[in-house]
Amino acid sequence: MAKIKSAFFCQECGYESPKWAGKCPSCGTWNSFVEEKVQKDIPSRHNVDWRSDASPLRTSKIVNLEDVEGAEEKRWLTPDAELNRVLGGGIVAGSLVLVGGEPGIGKSTLFLQNALLLNNVKTLYISGEESEQQIKMRADRLKIKNDQFYLLTETSTQSIFQEIKKLQPQLVIVDSIQTLQSPLIESAPGSVSQIRETTAELQRFAKESQTPVFLIGHITKDGSIAGPKVLEHMVDTVLQFEGDQHYAYRILRTIKNRFGSTAELGIYEMTGNGLRQVSNPSEILISQREDMLSGVSIAATIEGMRPMLIEVQALVTQSVYGTPQRTATGFDLRRLQLLLAVLEKRGGFHFGVKDVFLNIAGGIRVEDPSIDLAVLCALLSSYEDIGIANKICFAGEVGLSGEIRAVNRIDQRIAEAEKLGFDKIIISKYNKKGLDLNKFKIEVLAVGRVEEVYRILF
Ligand code: TYD
Ligand code: MG
């Protein structure tokens, strides 16, 4: 029996140290060291290798880049167009994909559904969280049948690889990486050393057998995938599944992708029987209303590669308490404070005595800065209690001095607004250069400063 050793691991970045330290020398985080038992160098290491008839030692040699044969990476398209999009065009053979998301957001549903939809692909779904009956119940709810779908409720990587060898699956899904345990490491499942070891074992399996592996991972409160950053370095692709649990919409974002762009995004709606792909998000994200309501404006944003029209709602009321409240859902609170400061200083509006609430429709988090102008207009509309005409939308970033700045891919935004029947779009005058306005039927108004927008609207 080998001696059990322990080491201290930074829970933030995975840095390993033989003794405890208050501050991590690698990433600078305070109080992040936790002691974990590690057992190293046990001779039976090859027992947990996915192929116990261990491959002969490979010797590497230097090659000239010109001599390397460029192999087209093999990809399969899944029936889910949104998933294909975020993966950069389908599942790549031998890739290791990590999917993060808050508990209850629908990660298990998404991958169970996709695995069941993949016909003629032998899939192994490894669950350390739910029983076979629970998964069966969920599959019944999804109403999809597939005779090539196999389940394994197991957490030890040693047993998992034994089963994999017998079944020879073409796709492996692990739900979740935090439940796996390698017999090589003493510490509890979910600890830094366990996550690192089990991921490394699965990575070896994925690369050597050319089988794609999806790892589902939980997310901590601050939005990072639980377990250290090393996990993100080890995998090829990191996806994030997000949304507000009280709303039906979910977004699948690409955070990292060795096989494609990270500017991709998939949109789903959670229904009573699984997730539904949303192919034209604008039509559901703006409410179809006839009357003008104050505090509501429409932003022409681009999320991922897709233009999307989103409704912004603001409520500005007289503050009752000494310190005015500011709340934002789906929008960065600091950005809201900045826009309020711009209105206060450049426009002379007295937001300092008002409570401000801001909400992006559908529970969606928007990262595109072009939503600034719509947020600003919604704030002004609620402040003045004057509605903005229904058929106007906005695309512009707001600068600190109150200038309206240009945003990228303005043509696409204008075209989307036109397609959805808008009459007018307000953009930055710096976007107007080089823009062929004759090709649009929609009226395009170009503005340079916040004051000009105010004069147009109110
Ligand atoms: P789940 O996939 O278990 O989330 P995660 O794996 O991310 O923790 O999904 C959780 C929620 O999804 C649960 O509250 C129920 C809901 N749900 C539906 O609304 N419709 C469905 O068809 C399914 C399967 C789940
Ligand atoms: Mg789950």
UniProtKB/TrEMBL annotation:
SUPFAM superfamilies: P-loop containing nucleoside triphosphate hydrolases, Ribosomal protein S5 domain 2-like. The keyword DNA damage applies. Plays a role in repairing double-strand DNA breaks, probably involving stabilizing or processing branched DNA or blocked replication forks. DNA-dependent ATPase involved in processing of recombination intermediates, plays a role in repairing DNA breaks. Stimulates the branch migration of RecA-mediated strand transfer reactions, allowing the 3' invading strand to extend heteroduplex DNA faster. Binds ssDNA in the presence of ADP but not other nucleotides, has ATPase activity that is stimulated by ssDNA and various branched DNA structures, but inhibited by SSB. Does not have RecA's homology-searching function. Belongs to the RecA family. RadA subfamily. Residues 72-219 form the RecA family profile domain. GO terms for biological process: recombinational repair. GO terms for molecular function: ATP binding; ATP-dependent DNA damage sensor activity; damaged DNA binding; hydrolase activity; zinc ion binding. ATP binds at residues 101-108. HAMAP family: RadA_bact. CDD domains: RadA_SMS_N. PANTHER family: DNA REPAIR PROTEIN RADA (PTHR32472), DNA REPAIR PROTEIN RADA-LIKE PROTEIN (PTHR32472:SF10). A motif (RadA KNRFG motif) lies at residues 256-260. It comes from Chitinophaga skermanii. This is DNA repair protein RadA. The middle region has homology to RecA with ATPase motifs including the RadA KNRFG motif, while the C-terminus is homologous to Lon protease. PROSITE patterns: RECA_2. Residues 355-458 are annotated as: Lon-protease-like. GO terms for cellular component: cytosol. Keywords: ATP-binding, DNA damage, DNA repair, DNA-binding, Hydrolase, Metal-binding, Nucleotide-binding, Stress response, Zinc, Zinc-finger.
